[in-house]
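Can anyone check this?
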Amino acid sequence: MFSDARRRGGSGRWAALALAFALAGCRAEHPLDAPRLALALASAPAARTPDAAPASAAAFGSAGPSGPGGAPTAPASAPSAPSAVAPPDPSGRTSCAAWSLETHGDADRREAADLERCRFVEGEGGELAPRCGFGAARRDVPLARLAEAVLDFDAPTREHLRELAARGRALGRRPRVFGLVGDSLTTTAMFLGAFGASRGAIYRVDPLVGAALRTRVDGDETRTIVDWYRGVDAARGADSFTARRAAKDGAPARWAATPAGARTPVGELVAELSPAVAVVLFGTNDAHVPATALGDLAARFAGDLGAVLDELEQAGVVPVLTTLPRHGDAPKRAGCDRKPGDLSDWRVAVQTNALNAVVVALACERHLPLVDLRHALEPLVNHGLDEDGMHLSGFGGGIGVLDPASLGCGYAVRNFVTLRMLAQVKDAIEPAAP
């Protein structure tokens, strides 16, 4: 197991589990008792309305033309941008105070007792999801509202990232290569696939979106994080956007750290790509388990996802964690359990919320970057979910488009917040890079 100064004697692993159980409200079900997160984070900001944004935040301007190869060109009227990566979340929130931990109503319930009383309400917006970004299904969300989901790094996180990057450089990890680890939310080309040069993919980025993704590339401070990775051979002629992924449809977290032959799927990814960074999203399938004590479910998931993180960190790869989308209204699933052993929408939703809290706990305790995807998806039609209530919605105008219309759809939002976090990580671990 990976260990460092933050995990002397392995105590950090147990601390992560204990905090995870507190997040999920599972103290009575599991022997690892811990204070509730409300006590640990008593100073966290009060709940806010999902659509609110800082008064100083710039919303989208009109869409503009793309530069050569799809790279954005900033208009003269665009807000001034820093010389490197765009500023982090203006709220200053870090992974320990993720937005998605806030409770606004029944949809956020995540405790064991909540499973006993179903409060499921049929979703509104599922029928609009396939048309997200168009007509009545368009949601022009302020760019700063989405950027809030890219949580800032506190001092311990910055220090840990530099330590991981130094270990990675010693092991030959490549700063202009990233890896992707997850389930069906990651296997699809709708997640970042259209930004690659390997297959001649074409993408289009609104100028203001491009300004939010800026980072220095080959001495040019007007380029974006897409340019940092695009066209750089990751493996077999493919760049990071189109290279092999440690991802499988229907996979739980345990799959990624379970050997399949000589190596685990994560091990195969590291051996083939040697990435400096890996984006990780698991939990949706882990939550689809009937009649399981919530504490046991949280413990198992914390251990499985922790094993994935252990392997990546041991290999000198920076893991970027991602919070879980909500579970919505699945058309072929009952809203409430009708008998013991049922797997209703309500049960899956509560269990998904609990595992989302585990993800936040692990990011907090291990000082890792966290993309609060759930928070970014909240203002969207059907919370960014497709009509099946489980997968993200896709923009019909093109999977490689990032503009005001497309950012009303789940996968486009995930692409934006992930790219912005990759830029933030790059700026933290490669401060002197050209």
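Reply from J.R.: I decoded it. Confidence is low (pLDDT under 50) at residues 1-88.
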